[in-house]
């Protein structure tokens, strides 16, 4: 197998990263089959907290770089780049920890990875060939997060609001926004920006054909 290209998609919480990455991935899989493209989520690399009680886990700052096991993500990206399959952890937002299962990710010519703090970490940045930043207005992100966290992540409106003010918003200005400077491409209007989705798809098609 030739050179592997690693594409990172970063940006605020609920800015459309997961939607953008999964749209690119699923449309290419439908068109070309899954061979050659792999997709990873930074969320899967939140530290395991199974040794803590649920109440203790609720106290963790999930927007701080220390919440992530980036060392394992670096290791997995290096292994994939070197042609080895990896076992990606699985994470539950409802229990705030990893679940026992893992998902096997096969190496490919193109690896996509999405997550809030990818471009903040110099060890990860070194591995990225193409970096994308989702530049979605924060009010749009907050509205999306509110609905998503209540519908899908087992939260109350009050808990979303408290967490937003205590950690999510401050971390955006401290860690996420400054990392925009490392992006090659800045995408406006979130995960439904079809022109941006098309551009990345064309680039991946070209890489797969090489
Ligand atoms: O999908 P998204 O990028 O929004 O996921 C990252 C967000 O998930 C972080 O902003 C963090 O606050 C939130 N999170 C959470 N509870 C966890 C783990 C992450 O609310 N247990
Ligand atoms: Mg997401």
TrEMBL record:
Any GO CC annotation of this UniProt entry: cytoplasm
One example GO MF annotation: ATP binding
Name of the molecule in the record: Uridine kinase
Record-linked Pfam families: PRK
Subcellular location per the Swiss-Prot or TrEMBL entry: Cytoplasm
UniProt EC number: 2.7.1.48
Record InterPro entries: P-loop_NTPase, PRK/URK, Uridine_kinase-like
Annotated family: Belongs to the uridine kinase family.
